[in-house]
Amino acid sequence: MSLPRTDNSVLGRWWWTVDRWSVAALFLLSLVGAVLVMAASPSVADQKGFGSFHFVHRHLATLGPALILMIGVSLLSPVGIRRFACGVFVVGIFFMFWVLANGVDINGARRWISFAGLSMQPSELVKPSFVVVTAWLLARPRKQGEPRGSALSIGLLIIVLALLVAQPDFGMAFVVGAVWFSQHFIAGMPAYALTVAIVAGVVGLVAGYFSLSHVQSRIDRFLDPDTGDRYQIDTALNAFANGGLLGRGPGEGVVKDFLPDAHADFIFAVAGEEFGLICCLAIICLFGFVVLRGIARLLENEDFFVLVSGGGLIFLFGLQAFVNLAVSLDLIPTKGMTLPFVSYGGSSMIALALGMGMLLALTRRHRQKWQEP
Amino acid sequence: MKKFGRRRGDPQCVPGQNGHSSAQVRLHGAHKSSIEIVRRRLLLGAGLFTVAFFVLSMRLVEVALFNEVRPSNAVNEEVETRDGPARADITDRNGVILATSLATRSLYADPQDVRSSASAAARLAEVLPEIDLKTVMARLSSDKRFVWLKRHLTPRQVAAVNALGEPGFRFLEEQRRVYPHGSLVVHAVGYAKLDNRGLSGLERTYDKRLLSHPNKPLTLSIDLRFQHVMHEELARAILLHHPVGAVGIILDIASGGLRAIVSLPDFNPNESGSVDQDVLFNRATLGTYEMGSTFKVFTTAMALDTGVATLQDGFDVSEPLRLARHVIRDFHGEGRWLSVPEIFIHSSNIGAAKMALAVGGDIQREFLARLGLLDRSQIELPEIAAPRYPKQWKDINTATIGFGHGIAVSPVQLCAGIASLINGGFWRSPTLLVENEKLNPAERVVSRVTSRAMRQLLRLAVTHGTGQNAEVAGYRVGGKTGTAEKVGPKGYDRSRVLSSFVGVFPISAPRYLVFVMLDEPKGAPATHGYVTGGWTAAPVVGRVIARIGPMSGIAPAVEGTAKDEFSTTVVKLDGDEIRLAAY
Known about the structure:
The complex is a heterodimer.
Chain A: H1 10-17, H2 20-48, H3 54-74, H4 78-102, E1 104-106, E2 109-115, E3 118-120, H5 122-139, H6 149-166, H7 170-186, H8 191-211, H9 213-223, H10 231-243, H11 255-258, H12 267-299, H13 304-328, H14 346-362, H15 367-371
Antiparallel strand pairs in A: 1-2, 2-3
Helix pairs in contact in A: 2-3, 2-12, 3-14, 4-5, 4-6, 5-6, 5-7, 5-13, 5-14, 6-7, 7-13, 8-9, 10-12, 12-13, 13-14
Chain B: H1 2-13, H2 15-27, H3 29-66, H4 77-82, E1 90-91, E2 97-109, H5 117-127, H6 133-140, E3 147-153, H7 155-163, E4 169-178, H8 186-189, H9 201-205, H10 207-212, E5 218-219, H11 224-241, E6 245-252, E7 258-264, H12 277-280, H13 296-306, E8 314-316, E9 321-323, E10 326-328, E11 337-339, H14 340-346, H15 349-359, H16 361-370, H17 395-402, H18 411-422, E12 426-427, H19 434-438, E13 443-444, H20 448-463, E14 478-488, E15 491-505, E16 512-519, H21 533-551, H22 562-565, E17 568-573, E18 576-581
Helix pairs in contact in B: 5-6, 11-21, 13-15, 13-20, 14-20, 15-17
């Protein structure tokens, strides 16, 4: 693309200020994801009785709009991001209330709304926008007669967590809580508050272990492999061993025939079996690059709001990638989470595009000059 | 909803101030330092992520390159049957295969891929006429993805089914247990069914070993040639006497290894379908019987070994023996004083009872325990019964046990006990495996002298007593008959007897013990209607010895040389004094 640096159009300014390396890495991840979904999903689709390319078509149909959405959001200024995120957050919260009343019950959880033939989880909209809203509340200057920003953000967190637990969606609640905590940590949370938060988190996890039987059984199975059905995890581990260094070759894997979530949560195992260790290391490096590059770009920035919101968005992205990869590799107990930009999964893809679009907007260089001449 | 209103209102009132405030932040010193904290903590986050992704990479390398593939413990029918384990072969002592596993193919269908269940079932019935059309049709029209149609097809049947061209019909490789000799060794080997698990016999005892070491065959002490001879001769006896059951055992006297073990009726383990309890019953180990006169071998050996009696002593059997309310009589009483050899060869109940009483109940009990007759046999089969005997060992019990009543043991126990009295005095547990035979610990139970005297008496019972039908020219058979009345609804029943004969050959250096037992034999013209052990079981033992003697490489002895070969003992016999060769 040849854009003169003097081009003052919206796209011209975007091109010269946005972090093009991160954009390239995210597009590369999407490409890898598209290839892997093509490899993994036909056999899953066959098992579920859809047409072979059912998931491929849907994935590509979501991926395009998601990437366009990401670029579109990244065109916004930090102020625009804040306004946009507030709007999305309000809409998301509204629909989270709405699904509790009218949602589609799938496997005992009410998370989805059906819209124009696509099902959507409103909580996925809340996830990235809540990060920005939290950062804004923390960055707000103290004023007489108004509650502190951190107190307000605690209140919002309680509302969001309550809505998520009501669905119930404990995994998402854990992620939202962890990201919220990371933001408060970045924003300079004092040591006593840090201790209280960590204790609260541990108590929450222990309470979850004892009160939720499925959480308990997952953790037990992780700690003692002989107690229960570790079919998925063992199959995934065998897939990596099967693939070895160079993989068995595209389409030569068998793990996708046995894993019901081969195209989503366990797509990394498919990559390991068909494309091998080197390709998997490259995928991990891509994720690492996006995270570290994002932080590096943030460090150039001076704005408190940008640092805290950007840090939260990166943490959200990195945490989700880490949990997915660590589950596939049997490092942590099973938790269903998609691999960002790689896994099949419509609404999670939209949420990630939204989040990364916001991050790209926040890490644009010399932004202040354009905004405050 | 109050909070909602406030949140929605906020963005509109704040933005103007925000740019202003961030300009302030950069000027203000305190804010400057708070930005530094944020930066440091972001760097810390970057460090944590670096470590996390590094750990992921290392774990990935470990899993992909150095991980052993962990077997999945998920159970689903298809995987389980496809991976049906191979079992090790079972062979006889000469390596002849008694049980082996064959790879076969089993037909199943994915009903979702079957175009028309009715026509598919009809066409399948044409090539596999034995299937049930209705069942197959019902299975093919189910909404499952996996239904069995027929297990273990022959290659010809597989080809025929493939030729049907039905895409829904598929095959699974399976293992099938095959017994090349059918029913011949079934009670020792046992059988394993469709799921490859041993259900009886050694297949059950060594189920785990056969599965976990599929390339290490299990070698039995059985000699298939001996087994075959015994099986055939027993089958002939059954045709002649129509007993309800029959047992035949050949035991290697020196090692305790069983060379043949037959229990009739039996069954063909290759045939599918459930097995009837009666044919599954191993009479040789799971059945316990009041053996009758063969027990007199124990009583006599006990009396001789304890020194209570010698071959020259005797007992008065002229009067029936009265003990409390019981009367013990002889079948064909001699009605006079009998020497110990006479008591033995004429099988006098009164004499045996008096001998046992002379020894005493406590010693008798201890003696029988030493011969392994009061405990469950240690043979390697799962089908073992415990012997039955009175808890209170009174005088009447001592007397009746002296001639084999009031105690029930399994045939294999009896054989091991008798073998220990004639092999020089060492008891060994009977065994079915060559490996156990080799390191079978021996325990001395009687002296050499007693053992030698027992050989003389057993030989005498064949030459001069009730066992004459067991004699085989050249093989110097020794033996003892047993005819026990069975217990009916009203006490002992004269018409239902258990006839047996325990033979040993060659008596000069005994190698094998041959035992035959017929349960409720019927009289036949050839035996003049007699059902006693001497008339029914002894001839079978004779025929078996005549056939296995040459196989075992024992050279027949020239008749009439015995007295010159061996020193002799003089005993009183029926008014004469005869010289008994001391073998």
